[in-house]
Specification:
about 35% helix, 12 helices, about 375 residues, alpha+beta, 2 domains
Amino acid sequence: MYVAVKGGEQAIDAAHAWLAEERRGDPSIAELTVPQIRAQLALAVNRVMAEGSLYDPDLAALAIKQARGDLIEAVFLIRAYRTTLPRLGSSRPIDTGRMAVIRRVSATFKDLPGGQVLGPTFDYTHRLLDFTLMAEGETPPAQTRPAVQPAGQGPVDVPHVTAFLNRDGLIQTEAASDTPPPDLTREPMELPAARPLRLQALTRGDEGFVLSLAYSTQRGYGRTHAFIGELRIGSVAVELEIPELGFAVEIGDIELTECETVNQFTGSKTEPPQFTRGYGLVFGQSERKAISMSLVDRALRWKELGEDFVGAPAQDEEFVLMHADNVQATGFLEHIKLPHYVDFQSELELIRRLRAEATAAQEAAE
């Protein structure tokens, strides 16, 4: 660290105090509270939970406040805290087919059982600044959220759109497995990685990076032309097996965004022409991330589907998985701010020697 800098630890303490002062801002302005961040900056909270691999809106809001709005720093804080938590058990696989949806759209079928639900989205806004939001004491908008299921009833089945294609054998059937997937948060990444591990890396990967890769596939770097089979957002129940009881109990619910894309597939020696899937699942309302994840997931499946590798970045498993993690990227990037005095002095001496040799050779030639 910078203990060799003039002032040493006192300088570092002063830097921390200055940082706290900058985080607080003008003391004449009311302090931003964690409940405000959770309620009014929900999309930022969702991103921190997804990339931090911890579903806790309050802690994510706290991390955003502490990080002064730097979401990657907030993700770092959440991951660091996550490592201190005990693991009490593993929940059963969630059933997104029984999601209490607040948004459900499909670009492949107009008429869906249960209908399409536009939900809360920027998709239909005009992207014009609303200066009324700068007014103090704004009146909360009227509640317009439609009921997603009859009051007093439990979860209802909301079938996935791809199931309709699957009935006619038009889309590849996903193989089920009883083998627990590896846990990326407890085991190091190993390549080649199976699809469950790839999906874990993508769901906690940096949204901007995954978005750029997805965009590259749409521009032709990956030969994937996708349709949104279904994009759904809502709450699902989380159940935990209790050995003493012999059955599972519901311990809560979480909000998720799920995306399934439908992609062309010309077939192989063993498979007829049919559609294939890309898949994305993210904490909270994070539809841009879920769509991006599903596109990149499909691009990474080229080998198992017997397709050609065209050299696209989104097809390169090592490139994608080793660079998607923003905390790792930040750590390696920002470590060059730390003292490298000895390294630089050796480089400096090398350059001086090379320059001296070059000058001597030039003078000898003259």
